[in-house]
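hiii so um. not sure if this is the right channel but i have a protein structure encoded as tokens and i wanna go backwards to a sequence. like what aa goes where. can anyone help
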């Protein structure tokens, strides 16, 4: 789940965005990939210590609840279930539609409606499988992970062929402006391919021997993914010029057309399977967030119920599906990346700040895994920079919308959660959806 959730659409979308925001500099682009990989490892280790302190499923939602109380936990569930998860799912769906449709339109861009229809149909298929059987979804995840690694190995082999054919890099390490490395937009583009790293903490309860397996999975998994990303980017840069990369959204397909023209269809197939796997693994993990938040009375009761026949969190998965389809139709991938990463790192920063606070407020809580204090301090400061900079200096409309949407959650938190006011007829609505979806509360509730 961990590696499969990370390797997906990001490596096939972000290279162009990172190169564009770095002013066409190959050196800066590679530095961003390494920097974001290291930051991901540090943030994941912080969440790992929190996961050992509070070994419950729910990930960041659990840590915010234990550290700050129900207010921030509600805002996290609100933003994550209604904005971050569907936004990231829409990015994956649009990338999937782009790579599947692109080979059928070799001389022009595919129509946007075709991309959106492909995205809707495949998103619906993946979520339906997750609603039907967790076991089948997990097995598909293994297959898709194998397929995506195979596709990346083929692309990496192109790098080796280029080296042995005495090809030289078609790009140069051009100087960059002084503010390039401090540009939040380029960092968000670089963090997006690693965004699946938090999925492991969502299912902490289901991991055997988490005190050993969780840190090992984080360090090995992110390091492995970082290595794969660097090798694949080198393949891009050795074969394609910066201009060619900046003109291509489907950069992997452009690479295939340039190097293996006869078998170039293999790359879009591998990329499509890769993104499908990422979408599948994300659905497998993210559906549990609304499920856990509802069990804690942070979301409506219906989302804490499971399907009677298949024993899957069908209401939570259905909510994700509906919102993902809505997010597909603005179709601006860059804005979706900026908005989702902004909100995600806002809550990651709160979690790492909470870890610092817990060193004093939870001194006696057992810690099977403990990191040096400097690590959460670094991650908290970087997260604060990533959140404050776009709001103050370069406010993207989508980021402003995400901020207002999250803060607006307080209008629901205080009457419905804090004061526990009951909405008229809500029980009848819950019963209606129970009968419609054939769901009931788990026996353990």
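sure thing!! here u go:
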């Amino acid at each position: 789940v961990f590696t499969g959730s990370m390797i997906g659409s990001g490596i096939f979308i972000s290279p162009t965005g990172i190169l564009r925001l770095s002013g066409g500099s190959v050196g800066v682009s590679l530095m961003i990939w390494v920097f974001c990989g290291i930051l991901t490892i540090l943030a994941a280790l912080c969440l790992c210590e929190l996961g050992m302190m509070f070994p419950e499923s729910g990930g960041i939602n659990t840590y915010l609840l234990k550290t700050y109380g129900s207010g921030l936990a509600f805002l996290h569930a609100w933003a994550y279930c209604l904005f971050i998860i569907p936004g990231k799912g829409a990015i994956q769906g649009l990338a999937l539609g782009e790579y599947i449709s692109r080979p059928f339109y070799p001389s022009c861009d595919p129509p946007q409606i075709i991309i959106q229809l492909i995205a809707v149909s495949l998103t619906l298929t993946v979520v339906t499988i997750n609603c039907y059987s967790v076991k089948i979804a997990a097995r598909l995840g293994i297959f898709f992970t194998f397929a995506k690694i195979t596709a990346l190995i083929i692309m990496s082999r192109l790098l080796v062929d280029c080296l042995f054919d005495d090809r030289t890099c078609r790009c140069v390490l051009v100087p960059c402006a002084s503010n390039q490395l401090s540009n939040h937009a380029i960092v968000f583009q670089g963090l997006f391919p690693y965004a699946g790293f938090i999925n492991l903490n969502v299912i902490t309860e289901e991991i055997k021997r988490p005190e050993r397996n969780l840190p090992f999975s984080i360090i090995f998994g992110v390091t492995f993914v970082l290595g794969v990303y660097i090798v694949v980017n080198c393949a891009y840069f050795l074969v394609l010029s910066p201009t060619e990369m900046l003109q291509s959204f489907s950069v992997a397909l452009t690479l295939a057309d340039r190097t293996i023209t006869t078998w170039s269809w293999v790359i879009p197939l591998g990329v499509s399977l890769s993104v499908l796997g990422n979408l599948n693994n994300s659905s497998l993990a993210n559906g549990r967030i609304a499920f856990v938040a509802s069990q804690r009375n942070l979301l409506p009761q219906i989302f804490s119920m499971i399907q009677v026949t298949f024993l899957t969190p069908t209401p939570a998965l259905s909510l994700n599906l509906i919102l993902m389809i809505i997010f597909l139709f603005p179709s601006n991938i860059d804005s979706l990346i900026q908005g989702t990463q902004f909100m995600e790192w806002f809550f990651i920063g709160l979690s790492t700040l909470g870890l610092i606070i817990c060193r004093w407020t939870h001194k006696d809580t057992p810690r099977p895994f403990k990191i040096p204090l400097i690590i959460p301090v670094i991650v908290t400061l970087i997260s604060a920079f990533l959140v404050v900079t776009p709001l103050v200096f370069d406010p993207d409309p989508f980021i402003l919308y995400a901020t207002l949407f999250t803060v607006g959650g307080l209008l629901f938190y205080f009457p419905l959660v804090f004061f526990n006011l009951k909405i008229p007829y809500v029980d009848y609505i819950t019963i209606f959806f129970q009968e419609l979806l054939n769901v009931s509360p788990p026996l353990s509730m």
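oh and The longest helix spans residues 70-101.
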